[in-house]
Amino acid sequence: MSKIKSDIEIARAANIKPINEILKKSNISDNPFNFSPMGRHIAKLNLEFIDSLKEKKSNLILVTAITPTPAGEGKTTTSVGLNDGLNKIGKHSIVCLREPSLGPSFGMKGGAAGGGYAQVIPMEQINLHFTGDFHAITSAHNLLSALIDNHIYWGNKLDIDPKNVVWKRVVDLNDRALRKIEINLEKLKTNTPRNDSFDITVASEVMAIFCLSNSIQELEEKIGNITVAYSKDKKPIYAKDLKAQGPMTVLLKEAVRPNVVQTLENNLAIIHGGPFANIAHGCNSILATKTALKLSEYVVTEAGFGADLGAEKFLNIKCRKAGIQPSCVVLVATIRALKMHGGAEIKDLKNENTDALKNGFSNLDRHIENIKKFGLDVVVAINHFITDTDNEVKIIQDHCSKLGVKVSLCTHWSDGGNGAKDLANNVVDLCKNINKSKFEYLYSDKNSILEKIEKIAKEIYKAKRIEVDEKTKEQIKKIEQAGFGKFPVCIAKTQYSFSTDPKLKGAPSDHTLAVREVRLSSGAEFVVIVCGSIMTMPGLPRAPAADNIKLNKKGEIEGLF
To answer: Whole-model pTM?
Structure first.
């Protein structure tokens, strides 16, 4: 039996082509006006070129998943496989993905460039520094922090209350020691010591703004509207009050240009931006998605975590801000994960267990039902594992057939685009019959913040009620009085359950969604509703991936995957 190659071994053996050859397939000529090479295999598209492109009729395919489990679902791998599959059947398709964070790469989860024979390459660069976008976002974010404290130091003309600075610092690494810190400890008359903290860069509001801006001009305007602190008489202080939007945008000038790379099968991939899918909306940038829609017949994109978080936010937040809508939705599921939702232990997942599989259908069914509430058609993609039995595969296929939902067994991990051709054909069939007038948001801008929360809680999570204490209700009232009540809501909760209890697998219902905190993202233009315990600065595990990452004698990276 031959040894199964690792992701990095597969990536290194790929027939990677110069990026200008890949761009030519999308009618992007080798012209300095169009793009700037970042080495031989990566480039950044120029904004002037993007602006020159005309709108065209294209199909946007959203890839989402059932509720995540440690067994894995594989949204990115399926997105890449589907994109290659669409190109295999003669359709011009581009995949749009988020950029990986360094935190997971050196922590526990690993990178986010796909896997097996459904990857984007060059894999090492994409999962490490890539084109420096995250460094630029980190620098812009922390420049704002420095300007706040500098303003206070030099007389505090805006009368900022040092105890009411709400703008944290960020770093793109997992570092639990930075969750709570003290600053300004040097004994100077102008210093006011205070508690502060760090978030990981992907949780930054700058990251969310970066991905929700339609242009660099809009980016600058939104940055100026960030609420950074409150004055001693409780008035909000914005980034524009500190004249921060100009220099921050300068730092983001190159980062805002979408990055282009290729799949293992030499198809174009755009990778740009990467916000959290709980504290933010968990999708790649609007600029990247809209650029791809101008360039190709089909665009495959993904949303973070399960459909109750990533897809809901893609549809209610990103689509609303960008003025776009999907043609259909791909719901990724694995038999392993469904068995976990049906009560099986992770150590037993390699064994056939049809009872657990059938019990796990409750999670799959809930996500299908939720997607249809937006007026969208869905196809289920079974991301195949070698431990799946033919009997288990047939059971899930029969179940989807009874629901009237298309289903495809996908082997893209081992077979690349050929393993996703059936999924590609099902997607094309759904796109042929699309009725775009059926699409609708779950709530209206005119709904109150509490009405929006309740709508998501009851319709998507199947909660019986929401629970909001008087202090939080007062927060919400002040946000609405300030004119921000029209913003969409971004619910931050565990990704591991429809409820706020990560241990409740399957499809729990009649639970209570307790709202713990409300945070205004006035620049990104949404209101974060914190439910349960949400970690915005992860820690490293006992044995982090970093332990095994090194350069070998050839100068190659080992241990990344």
So the answer is: 0.95
